[in-house]
Amino acid sequence: MHLKNHFSISILLAISLTILFYSTLTTALDEPEYGYNEESADGPKHWGDLKREWAACKGDMQSPIDLSNERVTLIPNLGRLTSYYKPQYATVSNRGHDVAITWKGDAGSININGNEYFLQQSHWHWPSEHTINGRRYDLELHMVHVSPQQDGTNKTAVVGILYKFGLPDPFLSELVKYIVEVPDEDEETNIGVIDPSNIFKDSNMYYRYMGSLTAPPCTEGIIWTINTKIRTVSRGQVKLLKNSVLKYYANKNARPVQILNQREIGVYDSIMADNIPHY
């Protein structure tokens, strides 16, 4: 009887330890490294203190910002922003805080100041991170581009597209069946060939400024281009994105606007630029 009781106790202890392990693991996975609740200890105001590698989050060139008409400067020589995208195989992934589309080969590029920036991935924020004259929109898409440098580093340029509620967005409509079955966090699903030009082709009017990544590590030196054309997205499409990520981020995954400091916000308007006399 003594051995039997000892064996039973050992089995119960092993089961308890197993349950505790998986419970702890699940809790750890559900607790993100940073959050968007401005009142919480891991909120945007504290990102720069959470990790040494995130110190840039306390920098002077942070994103997003408010694109105020009072602060912008017309810069005709910025030129039209034209993309040179091409269809390429892509994957969809749930990164916990957002849903991302990643192209696995050469999906084309944009040209900024004579440098080519190659498209890497796109992801969404709700509500929008950038505001225009104080107005925050319902969704923002970021198209992340990278330009390899000779010293082995990369320069990053992000194109931002703002959306308000209205008719469904055609690109999201194309992805619905994949987002519904988006994999668990940090896993990817192949979604076949995706043409980035279905998202963005070119822009005759946009804002341009120097900023940062809008999430840790908040790396600065990012070239931001925000298209002034506001697109539409359905409430159902935004809800679909929200339901695909960790519950911690379902309500909001947008960083508050940051202080502009002494930065210049350039704006390009093709109509005004074409009407400026050249001597």
TrEMBL record:
Keywords in alphabetical order: Lyase, Metal-binding, Signal, Zinc
EC number of the protein: 4.2.1.1
SUPFAM superfamilies, sorted: Carbonic anhydrase
GO terms for biological process, alphabetical: one-carbon metabolic process
Residue ranges constituting the Alpha-carbonic anhydrase domain according to the UniProt record: 32-269
Catalytic activity: hydrogencarbonate + H(+) = CO2 + H2O
Cofactor(s) it depends on: Zn(2+)
GO CC annotations on file: chloroplast stroma
Described function: Reversible hydration of carbon dioxide.
Subcellular localization(s) per the UniProt record: Plastid, Chloroplast stroma
GO MF entries: carbonate dehydratase activity; zinc ion binding
Homology family: Belongs to the alpha-class carbonic anhydrase family. Belongs to the alpha-carbonic anhydrase family.
Organism of provenance: Pisum sativum
Protein name: Carbonic anhydrase
Matching Gene3D superfamilies: Alpha carbonic anhydrase
CDD domains: alpha_CA_prokaryotic_like (cd03124)
Superkingdom: Eukaryota
InterPro entries: Alpha_CA_prokaryot-like, CA_dom, CA_dom_sf, Carbonic_anhydrase_a-class, Carbonic_anhydrase_a-class_CS
